[in-house]
Specification:
The protein is mainly alpha-helical and 209 residues long. It has a domain at 95-208. The chain has helices at 2-27, 41-48, 50-76, 79-120, 124-128, 134-145, 150-159, 170-174, 182-188, 200-208.
């Protein structure tokens, strides 16, 4: 009897889980009944931060170049060039870690945006949350594209006057003292970990059956 009771509990939990998913589906936009094929998480991760990872490669190469120059300046016994090349090296080396942290934070933006678009459909208020910088916009675009809203979000950003060459974050223009603001460090490099509420790859496979 003990085993039978335990088996029934597992079956009941499974049925409850299916019912909860069914309730969620009832409130999802109809478009999500045709959830597009979902890429692996690692692919999404690199798509979200593709601009950042190109710059990461650049900073790694720069750090190596500046380090070689710094070592060479030590043999010249020139305090100016030692300080100059050391400063260049430290600048590039520190940016390697800042870019990695920035990429990780943008991935948190992507996961949150994808959950919001999945539940509410494309909504301009959600897109507005990621207008601040090109990297944040790219995170929202990737999230929307994976749900079939790529055209909607790119058209919306275009309607807001955003151009492809707007690489400088808008807050840097509006607030020249951004380096001394907590919001800059918290949102750019220290975004809180966001756990996705949906397993999109599993949902796609379940709906394809």
């Amino acid at each position: 009897m003990g085993y039978s009771w335990q088996f029934d509990c597992k079956a009941a939990k499974s049925q409850t889980h299916k019912f909860e998913l069914f309730e969620i589906y009832l409130y999802l936009p109809v478009h999500h009944l045709d959830l597009p094929s979902q890429p692996p998480v690692l692919v999404s991760y690199f798509r979200v931060g593709k601009l950042l990872y190109w710059s990461l490669l650049l900073f790694i190469l720069e750090s190596w170049f500046y380090w070689v120059k710094f070592q060479g300046s030590l043999e010249q016994f020139s305090l100016f060039w030692v300080a100059f090349w050391l400063g260049c090296f430290l600048f590039s080396f520190v940016h390697i870690f800042l870019v990695i942290m920035d990429g990780w934070s943008r991935f948190q933006n992507y996961k949150r945006a994808k959950d919001l678009f999945f539940v509410h459909g494309f909504n301009s208020k959600i897109a507005d949350m990621y207008l601040g910088s090109k990297c944040q916009r790219n995170a929202a675009i990737v999230a929307a594209e994976e749900l079939g809203y790529g055209t909607e979000i790119t058209n919306y950003f275009t309607s807001k006057g955003i151009k492809w060459y707007h690489y400088i974050p808008y807050f840097m223009i509006h607030d020249p003292l951004f380096l001394f603001r907590n919001y800059f460090w918290e949102r750019t490099f220290l975004e809180k970990v966001y756990v996705s509420k949906f397993d999109f790859r599993r949902l796609h496979l379940e709906r394809a059956i």
